[in-house]
């Protein structure tokens, strides 16, 4: 969209709009050619410029049906910001009732946004124009009543309840419906202790079998989990249902990986426990049954008794085996994975270090070994960072070069057009 057009919409300058149209009669049509569709009507609705919005609607009524990058129509924006005049102007169009049924990318229609923010007058206008919109549910299975209760909008809830009580067709079904978490509006009101909502409902449709109790007894005894208020979304929001689903898919992959790792650790530690390495345990040690009863100082000096590394190797090897075995059973439980997986991995690391100590001929050899290992590790880390920087620099250079070539081609094309006009 032309920046001048966007600025005029933000300021509500109808004179500037007229001047732009005189200069370029197709300036409004060109908006459909932009990669991101954001009409002047969206901006005017967000800024609350009523007169400007009316003029745009008179020139281009189809803008009322357009969705911006967040999936909002101008009616979504006007309903959320509480601009009743723009809402009425939009609903007065021939296709006004259809606008009430359009949903954004999160499954919310304009009435849902009005209920979340408690816009009572706008709720009345929307319900009067399109009663069907009150029966639509969000991507989370929430009705407009769920949204009003979750966001503690009692006045909005009261107006909606009156509407559904007067509806003889589906009003009762909507009132008793459950969201995707399986909660009714009554259960949510009990969890959040909204006394006014509970009194308005009169405990009708309660599944808690506490109708004969007093209100305070019900509130003190309910064990429903308190729901979180509905989060409003915009282009910068990271908390969406898509992100939640993605997290679930990632964790499913992690579960499979944990199961494979646990199986490998259990196999290795089981084999190492049955057949310890020769540097840890020798065959002739099995014949000497007095080693563990000797004084510690004698144990280490007796060649037929295990060395001190044995008493490090076996406990950590055993803990790694049992941790991995339990992990195979409880790999779907995140709490168990967070505890058992580090135990199994750390135990494996300590047993490996113990073996390397027992196999080294002297302390200097061991030091050299780990210094080389550390150097290799640092080299790999630095190499990865260098490669990342090189790739990033390449893409930045290619992008800048592409912009320069595009600009040059545009200037040549413009120069050729002007030369042709002069000729």
UniProtKB/TrEMBL annotation:
Query: Cellular component GO terms, alphabetically?
Result: plasma membrane
InterPro entries xref list: Ankyrin_rpt, Ankyrin_rpt-contain_sf, PGG_dom
- The species is Senna tora
Its membrane topology: Peripheral membrane protein
**Subcellular localization, as worded in the UniProt entry:** Cell membrane
Keyword tags: ANK repeat, Membrane, Transmembrane, Transmembrane helix
**Membrane-spanning regions, if any?**
308-329, 336-355, 367-387
Q: Name one Pfam family in it.
A: Ank_2
Classify the main location: membrane
Q: Where are the ANK repeats?
A: 70-92
Origin superkingdom: Eukaryota
The PGG domain covers: 252-356
Instruction: Outline the segment boundaries, as ranges, of region: Disordered.
Output: 222-244
Composition bias of kind Polar residues appears in: 232-244
Q: What is this protein called?
A: Ankyrin repeat-containing protein BDA1-like
């Amino acid at each position: 969209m032309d920046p001048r057009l966007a600025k005029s919409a933000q300021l509500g300058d109808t004179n500037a709009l007229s001047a732009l149209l005189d200069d370029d009669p197709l300036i409004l049509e060109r908006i459909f050619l932009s990669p991101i569709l954001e009409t002047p009507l969206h901006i005017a609705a967000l800024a609350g410029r009523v007169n400007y919005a009316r003029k745009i609607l008179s020139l281009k009524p189809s803008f009322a049906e357009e969705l911006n990058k967040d999936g909002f129509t101008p009616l979504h924006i006007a309903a959320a910001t509480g601009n009743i005049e723009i809402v009425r102007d939009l609903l007065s169009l021939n296709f006004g009732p259809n606008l009430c049924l359009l949903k954004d990318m999160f499954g919310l229609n304009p009435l849902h946004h009005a209920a979340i923010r408690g816009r009572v007058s706008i709720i009345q206008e929307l319900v009067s124009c399109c009663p069907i919109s009150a029966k639509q549910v969000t991507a989370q299975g929430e009705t407009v009543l769920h949204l009003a209760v979750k966001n503690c909008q009692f006045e909005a809830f009261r107006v909606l309840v009156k509407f559904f009580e007067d509806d003889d067709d589906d009003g009762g079904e909507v009132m008793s419906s459950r969201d995707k978490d399986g909660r009714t509006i009554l259960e949510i009101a009990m969890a959040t202790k909204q006394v006014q909502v509970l009194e308005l409902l009169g405990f009708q449709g309660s599944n808690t079998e506490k109708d004969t109790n007093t209100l305070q007894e019900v509130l003190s005894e309910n064990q429903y989990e308190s729901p979180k208020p509905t989060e409003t979304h915009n282009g910068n929001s990271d908390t969406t249902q898509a992100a939640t689903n993605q997290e679930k898919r990632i964790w499913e992959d992690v579960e499979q990986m944990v199961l494979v790792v646990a199986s490998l650790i259990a196999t290795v530690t089981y084999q190492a426990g049955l057949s310890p390495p020769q540097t840890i345990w020798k065959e002739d040690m099995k014949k000497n049954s007095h080693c563990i009863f000797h004084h510690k100082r004698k144990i280490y000096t007796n060649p037929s008794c295990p060395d001190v590394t044995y008493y490090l190797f076996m406990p950590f090897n055993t803990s790694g085996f049992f941790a991995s075995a339990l992990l195979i059973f409880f790999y779907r439980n995140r709490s168990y994975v967070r505890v058992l997986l580090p135990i199994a991995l750390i135990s494996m690391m300590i047993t490996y270090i113990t073996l390397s100590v027992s196999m080294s001929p002297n302390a200097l050899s061991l030091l050299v070994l780990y210094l080389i290992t550390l150097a290799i590790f640092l080299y790999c880390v630095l190499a990865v960072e260098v490669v990342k920087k090189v790739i990033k620099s390449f893409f930045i250079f290619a992008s800048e070069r592409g912009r320069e070539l595009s600009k040059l081609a545009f200037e040549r094309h413009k120069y050729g057009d002007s030369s042709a006009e002069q000729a």
